[in-house]
Input
Amino acid sequence: MSATILGLTGALLVGIGLFGLIVHPTALRKLLAFNLVGAGVFLIFGVVARRAAAAGLPGDPVPQAIVITGIVVAFAATALAATLLARLSEPGEQP
Amino acid sequence: MNELLALALAFPLVLGALFIVLAASTRAALFGFFAFGLFLALAWVELEAIDVALTEAAIGGGATGLLLLRLNARMRRTVSLGQPAGPQLRIVAGLLAVLVTLVLGALLLALPDPAPSLAAATVEPLPTLGISNPITAVLIAYRALDTLLEIAVLLIAVVGIRVMGAERGWAGRPVPWPAAEPSPALVFLARLLVPAGLVFAVYLFWVGADAPGGKFQASTLVAALWLLAIMAGLAPAPRTGGGWTGIALAVGPLAFIAAGAIGLAATGSFLAWPEPVAKPMIVVVELALAASVVVALVMLVAGPPEPEAGR
Output
């Protein structure tokens, strides 16, 4: 039951992030909203892992390990986007 | 009882997300993101995924928040990708968001019961690897190719950031942190936390074989401590381009590929660990990967090189 509550929270995070991604005109806020979407997707995947508890483990380790990889890759993408934004904000650059 | 705890975590998460999206000030939204990241890490603890909670607290909340806060301070003007949304667009976006949320929620409630699981298949070969934390085993053995590609993604991002500053010189130090004198409290905190944190990182690295922890969690901790030392003015940001940082970035993927080739020669498949030497090989590869991850994370937060003074 508690896993389902957190899963629905993940679905809400995806929705809220998607709204921010569309509505905000500024690039930095879009980046922030996109990270919210990612957090929601990871949380849903975590709930899928938790539901698959078996063999004495509290959750399926395969989705959990993939979420760890996903968090690191999302960070790398955010860092690259942030550098592009910093460059765009310099004088003489047009988005 | 657990439902109460889950609800107690769900409320701040949803409210935090709403605050991040709706706050008028970008700076306020960024600070909201830090708090959100901590609650998200607690939600991962509630889902019994301690390894993910450690990664989320360090990278998802901490490093991403720090990166975006630094970006916000560095941007010379707001970059807009369009006009502010009118009422019509807001309504359509709201409806779309509600629709996506409802579909995801319905899918979650419709998941099969009992859920399909790879847990048993993961546990069975653990003794031959000398590892008893199944998540570490998935990352370094069963899905080693994913981990190899992950470090490749980190390297590509580092190269991408370096290219951003290429016309000002391939090598150099990144943009300095706010030039003002760091507060004495921050300097004291850095002096106190860095040595203790390094000891804890070594512990996390080693214990990852048998308990929550591992090379990623330990590397992110070391990277965070390094960034703290940079912010407190105790250490300079690493130079991009050549030198020992280049070697550190390359050693992880190269060691991983070399180990994969040994596996190919010994057992006939790439990245398979030959049984008698599986554990020592894994430790060597993880050490090399940890060095690469630490340098890559610090460089990703520090940003592209700036022209050297006097050029």
In short: Chain B has two domains: 1-73, 124-311. Chain B touches chain A through 96 residues (CB under 8 Å).
